Amino acid sequence: MPKPVNTNPDFFGYAELLSEAERAELAEIRAYLEREIKPLANDAWEKAEFPFEVVEKFAALRLAGYYYPEHGDGTPRSPLFTGFLSIELNRIDPSLAVFSGVHTGLAMGSVYNGGDQEQRDRWIPDMVDMNKIGAFALTEPEGGSDVAGGMRTTARREGDEWVLNGAKRWIGNGTFADLVVVWARDVSDDQVKGFVVEKGTPGFHASKIEGKIALRTVQNADIVLDDVRVPEANRLQNVNSFRDTAKVLAKTRGGVAWQALGVAVRAYELAREYAVDRVQFGKPIGAFQMVQDLLVKMLGNITAMFGVVVRLNELVAEGRGGAAQAALAKAFTTTKMREVVAWARELFGGNGIVLDHEVAKFFSDAEAVYSFEGSREMNTLIVGKSITGLSAFA
Q: Which keywords annotate this record (predicted)?
């Protein structure tokens, strides 16, 4: 009698830390994503177009409400549950997971954490329902990792309005968002502040960035702000410096670690299935020692990644997960993800470069996940300062 085969990439059973109800809910979400979202993903990626029908499909899942339960169904979800939810979204399609993450994590997170109660009540319910889609405009054409100290976009107060001027780049959802959180330097005190710019505001111009090789479905925008006037009521009232911006980034950076795990999980699943099904020299290629070596190295990376992100979420739940822990998780998991997707693509041989076998998409998308929310080098310096007390930033 043949021995059972363990096909689960969660080899050490971290999902068993979830409650039975949470595991059942995740299974329902996976089935829905497989049925409703996955059939749209590859075609949209190849065309570099956003399938707007997914907005209604995501809204039906009430995904945004999981992070803000008082505006959702009222049921709090554990940080561990939302981490496993990220795996499910990313194993279906990293681009559409980024669409959701920009909206729920960066844009809604900025309003929720940086806004006052009136602003939360004004915007969050529509964002939970996905009647209004959000974007987050921080990165600039000449400022990525150094944007904290070198932000060129300015804000100047005139009476009850603010006048914004400058440019932003790589802004996910930026071409169609209803609400764009724009970060700008107040010329009066040289501090970074946050502003919600609503769709149709004069002087706000967004154009799609073309020619991407990763996350092609994500509509990244170049944004120009030309005397954009924003009312004081749209300035995030609890943002007084870049430190408040960094609080949002610290939370989403930990989310990117889970995203990297989701990408790696799917690449491994595809590679394992292919190794079992693909026959060469009269037997499945999974019967060859070097192929098994690749699969086991992938699984080892994934298992280590699980350990990091699960523990990070435990620390977050206890109020002990800080910026340094999130930075280490992001740097480590994205590096290991990059190895996993490369080994998966290698296992497919020539078939690994065509979209039909799907692994090519995950191989390409991994490059964006590796780069955003702080490069490996920048996150390394955050951790380095934490463990030495010495800043090595240029």
A: FAD, Flavoprotein, Oxidoreductase
Q: What is the mean pLDDT of the chain?
A: 92
The span from the CA of 108 to the CA of 334, in Å, is 24
Closest CA relative to residue 54, chosen from 176, 235, 157: 176
pLDDT in tens, 267-302: 999 999 999 999 999 999 999 999 999 999 999 999
For residues 374 and 260, is the Cβ–Cβ distance under 8 A? no
Residues in the chain: 394
- Strand 279-280 relative to strand 221-231: parallel, antiparallel, unpaired? unpaired
Q: In the structure, what pLDDT confidence band is assigned to residue 73 with cuts at 50, 70 and 90?
A: low
Reading phi first (left if > 0) and then psi (alpha if -120 to 50, else beta), residue 279 is in beta
CATH no. of 243-388: 1.20.140.10
**Tens digit of pLDDT for each residue in 333-344?**
999 999 999 999
Domain boundaries, the chain: 14-128, 134-240, 243-388
How many helical (H) and strand (E) elements, i.e. helices and strands, does the chain have? 13, 9
Amino acid at 375: S
Question: In sequence order, what are the beta bridge partners of 280?
Answer: 283
Please give the pLDDT value at position 334.
Answer: 96
Distance CA 103, CA 351 (A): 34
Q: What is the pLDDT of residue 139?
A: 92
Terminal-to-terminal C-alpha distance of the chain = 63
Q: Cα–Cα distance between 253 and 268 in angstroms, integer?
A: 23
70 versus 341: the higher-pLDDT residue is 341
Provide the greatest CA pair distance for the chain.
Answer: 80
Q: Do domains 134-240 and 243-388 have the same CATH topology?
A: no
Classify domain 134-240 by CATH number. 2.40.110.10
Closest CA to 379 of 338, 323, 321, 312: 323
- Of 3.30.230.10, 3.40.190.10, 1.10.540.10, 3.30.750.24, which CATH number belongs to 14-128? 1.10.540.10
384 pLDDT higher than 70:
yes
